[in-house]
């Protein structure tokens, strides 16, 4: 096994759970929030700051200005002049590449597919689902009424989309941005994991 799998996902599609199960199936490492902890450690940013910017583009000039006084770890002049949201993105970008260099793994979100665009051993997936299935999952997971679940779903997907479209040269959720897009509500989580596992195995054989 030599493949790095990146997963973009709609909120409520089960993308995170699918990523965990795929990693478990192949016995490889899984990175989601873990990536933030590591990016914080390696860049010198505090973890809270990295979490605050996680998959959220921020355009608040004032916020960037205030937070800039807390950042350190990089000191080239162009880096110093950069908004804090860009610095956090670059710190994650570096960490994603380091993780991919260490061996096969599953990385969820955070423009990992874009960060690893040059990597030939990388498969980029996107998980989406029907709205009814997503809302139901969000209601159960976060104990929310239907209206609130829908609001949260829209908000999260907007954040992810604007983050991805802002930092990468591709379009979030569009088929030609990925190698494989799967509707998890058709096969369910287990079925989707099986489908992805088969796809990865075939990819490995072809590139052996």
Task: Describe, in plain words, how this protein is organized in 3D.
By secondary structure, the chain is an alpha/beta fold. It has one domain (4-55, 89-206): Rossmann fold (3-Layer(aba) Sandwich). Helices cover 58% and strands 12% of the residues. The chain contains ten helices and five strands, in the order E-H-E-H-H-H-H-H-E-H-E-H-H-E-H. A five-stranded parallel sheet has the order 2-3-1-4-5, with helices on both faces. It is globular, with a radius of gyration of 17 Å. 37% of the residues are buried. Residues 60-76 have low confidence and may be disordered.
Total number of helices: 10
- Please count the beta strands (DSSP E, at least 2 residues each): 5
- Fraction of residues in helices? 55-70%
Shape: globular
Indicate the structural class. alpha/beta
**Beta strand %:** 5-15%
Q: Which sheet architecture does the biggest sheet show?
A: 5 strands, parallel
Keywords summarizing the entry:
208 residues, alpha/beta, Rossmann fold, 5-stranded parallel sheet, 10 helices, globular
């Amino acid at each position: 096994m030599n493949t790095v799998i990146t997963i973009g996902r709609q909120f409520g599609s089960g993308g995170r759970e699918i990523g965990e199960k795929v990693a478990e199936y192949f016995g490889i490492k899984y990175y989601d929030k873990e990536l933030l902890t590591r990016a914080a450690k390696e860049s010198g940013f505090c973890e809270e700051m990295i979490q605050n910017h996680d998959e959220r583009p921020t355009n608040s000039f004032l916020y960037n200005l205030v937070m800039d006084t807390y950042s350190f770890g990089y000191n080239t002049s162009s880096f110093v002049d950069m908004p804090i949201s860009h610095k956090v993105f670059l710190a994650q970008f570096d960490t994603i590449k380091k993780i991919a260099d260490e061996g096969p793994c599953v990385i969820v979100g955070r423009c990992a597919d874009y960060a690893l665009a040059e990597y030939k051993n990388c498969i980029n997936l996107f998980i989406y689902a029907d709205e009814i299935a997503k809302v139901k999952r969000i209601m159960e997971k976060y104990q929310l009424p239907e209206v609130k679940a829908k609001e949260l779903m829209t908000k999260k997907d907007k954040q992810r989309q604007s983050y991805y479209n802002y930092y990468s040269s591709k379009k979030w959720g569009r088929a030609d941005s990925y190698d494989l897009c799967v509707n998890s509500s058709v096969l369910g989580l287990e079925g989707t994991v099986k489908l992805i596992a088969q796809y990865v195995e075939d990819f490995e054989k072809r590139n052996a």
